[in-house]
Amino acid sequence: MSMRFVKADINIDFIGKRKFAFVLSLVLVLISLGSLVLHGGPRRGIDFEGGMVVQIKFERPVAIGDIKTAFASVGIDSTTVQGFGEAAHNEYLVRTDATEDTSGGWTSAITSALNEATGASVEIRRVEMVGPQVGKDLRTKALLAMFYALLFITIYISGRFELKWALSIVMAVALAGTVYVLKLFPWVSMPILIAAALVLSVVLFWFLELKYAMGAIVALIHDVMITVGLFSIFDKEFTLPIIAALLTIIGYSLNDTIIVFDRIRENIRKHQKNTLEFIVNRSINETLSRTLLTSMTTLMVLICLFVLGGGIIHDFAFALIVGILVGTYSSIFVASPILLAWQSKK
Amino acid sequence: MKSLSWRLILVIAVITAAIVYLLPTLNPAIWPHKQINLGLDLQGGMHLVLEVDTEKAVDSNLERIYQDVRQLVRRERIRGVRMQPTGGRQIDIVVKGADQIAAFKKLLSDELDSMLKKIRIDGNALFELSLYLESDEVDHIKRLAVDQALETIRNRIDQFGVAEPDIRLQGDNRILIQLPGIKDTERAKSLIGKTALLEFKLVDDAGDLNAAVGGSVPPGRQVLYREEVDRQTKASRKIPYLLKKRAVLTGASLTDARVQIDSQYNEPYVSIEFDKKGARIFERVTEENVGKSLAIVLDDRVASAPVIQEKISGGQARITGQFDMEEARDLAIVLRAGALPAPVEILEERTVGPSLGADSIRYGLISMLIGGICVVVFMLIYYRGAGLIANCALLLNIFLIAAGLSALQATLTLPGIAGIILTIGMAVDANVIIFERIREELSLGRTPYSAVDAGFSRATLTILDANVTTLIAAVVLMQFGTGPVRGFAVTLSLGVVASMFTALILARMIFNYLLKNRKVRTLSI
């Protein structure tokens, strides 16, 4: 007998619990939104805000106040200093909003200032300086990446799942047109644009009854919202790699959703007499084993990366872990039940 | 048997290609292809984005025109000409007197025909006009400045000696510089960022220096300073000089610059050599100004201002100052490579020390190894025999990603390693989908062979569908991402493609072989 976590004939009533799941998801999304509002939006790292990060390593533990003093002595007054990576390594990360001109002997100046203030020998391991203009450019780039990923995925889902490629192209044109018109207004910023595109997609999906596309996109918004919200709650910074992680979460969340949807389509052909509720529930159960197994192996490697991968990759791994957990949940409890939403309408 | 053979050929072909691409990384002597590139975050190095101040280039161009016109007017002995460069990128000129106006107009049509003119008053006694640059011309100057800056920086870095630097234009007026493995980042930065505009200017010994320092600088003159550091006390003081603004010679006339050691003081200096035209000018200027001082000005700082003892022919001069050996060598490099046409500003810098890079590689590999072992052990326990097949596929998968990186000449970054680790977790997904299908089919009472067949054929489309979305995200990231993030997108895409190949082609081949050729009756799944 082969090993199974999930019994072959398992039949959990996921659909029956969908109201509870909806409430849970709604609460999570609201908490995320609330945290974002309280913090005044996501905390942007130097990639997007401009500023400077210096990673330094000492031969022995030093007082954070001394590090601040050293930076102040070279003219950088407002710094936040925190321990970085494992405590035994005596590494610290210094952040500042100032974009110092790092040419002309800056490195040796700060090295000797740190030596003097702490009395310990120091190694400057990493210096990242992003000017405000570059920060603004990177912000636009990151948002554009999010926007295009969403656009292409929207087209793909509505085309592939409903086999309505013509409709999906019409949708894409509508989306692109709206975005183009909105862009003519100077006060419309990129985040507003993305939000508008998403709202438009959801509205179009609803009225065109593109059920699968609707399920997929709602699950995807749900996953990204909660991940971003958790980042905000833990007061973690958004950097370029985190944007990469968010896009990967989008891909992964859809991946999970698509596997369940594929099974639903297959079962609709097989069990034509049964209700959609029965079919959806049965499909979720049939794919449950796969859904959990893949999430498990992916989480295994991500936890290894989170624990062993070092400080630089820490937040990236964290974002992916959260995304995979939420994505697995949403493919079962959010994406599939949405297919039933049109029934109550009729 | 037929379906086995094409899969076998394909698998062998892919593995062979992968080995060919990977050989140089394992041992460069065996096969002459490039090794896998490591990103700056892994091997250490410096990433810089500079902005060329193109506005300054336009300004100095206009200043040059202004000086030229002034000289022309003086040569033609036209009096009563008042001219002034104004903020609006133009030179306002007022000429008085009928004779002077006629002479000036002749000058305009003979020598300044290419300039755009806006004539405001064209009377008998008064002639007022502005010279300005056409917007096409301004664009051209800006483009030229950026190109020239790029070329100059490339020259400097070549002479500095960095292995495989990457220097390229980014957008309109930005220059991206990547210097892998560089240790002395500070020296590199000063070498790159120095404008290195070398000018020879005559000192105005007759002018009132004190008044000029006080603020009333005579027209056509300027005050620049020389910094002198006392050898004993290390205290520095600034010595002002009143100079004629017009440079008699610039670094553009140099053909060579070398470091030499002064035998008397045992101090390094830079000896420079002028081209023919420069040598002639230098000879004439020194001849005409014996007894006066000639200042050697580098980036608006006076390096030295020796008194001209006699006419200097032969086109050689020396720049002395108080520099150490390294400074002298860097000065020679920037002088040989030429001046930047406009100042540059560092907009973005990312520097990773070599030890941090090595740490990142170590942590990355450890996570990859432990994560991989977890997955392999899990698959073996959960799927047993079939798990072994999945593990073979997984190993081949990592091998193919590495080969893909090498073949595409892509750069492996820290997020890239994270991408490979993520792929290890996600790659078994395709196998899991297939195996779960086969288990389902088996539980419906099918024979092993038909269960495998049905499992694969039903799972294929699902696997393709599911992976397309990850690929979409990865491709978008590749387009918009920078450096490290792009590395992640590359390994993720390679991983997705490789995992589809290994699951759908390789795993199926092994199943078919076992079931058909070895006549395996029961599936270990």
Question: How would you explain this protein's 3D organization?
Answer:
- The complex is a heterodimer of chains A (346) and B (525).
- Chain A is an alpha+beta fold.
- Chain A folds into two domains: 15-45 and 134-345, Up-down Bundle (Multidrug efflux transporter AcrB transmembrane fold), CATH 1.20.1640; 51-130, Alpha-Beta Plaits (2-Layer Sandwich), CATH 3.30.70.
- Chain A is 67% helix and 8% strand.
- Chain A is built from twelve helices and four strands.
- Chain A has a four-stranded antiparallel β-sheet with strand order 2-3-1-4.
- The mean pLDDT of chain A is 87.
- In chain B, helix 10 (354-383) runs parallel beside helix 12.
- In chain B, a hairpin with a 6-residue loop joins strand 10 and strand 11 (236-244).
- Chain B has 525 residues and is an alpha+beta fold.
- The model of chain B has no long low-confidence stretch (mean pLDDT 86).
- Chain B has three domains: 2-43 and 353-517, Multidrug efflux transporter AcrB transmembrane domain (Multidrug efflux transporter AcrB transmembrane fold), CATH 1.20.1640; 55-133; 194-348, Gyrase A, domain 2 (2-Layer Sandwich), CATH 3.30.1360.
- Chain B has helices at 2-26, 40-43, 54-75, 98-111, 135-160, 185-193, 209-214, 276-288, 325-337, 354-383, 385-408, 414-443, 448-480, 483-517; strands at residues 37-38, 45-52, 81-86, 90-96, 116-122, 126-132, 166-170, 174-180, 198-202, 221-229, 236-244, 249-250, 254-262, 267-274, 294-298, 301-304, 316-319, 344-352, 411-412.
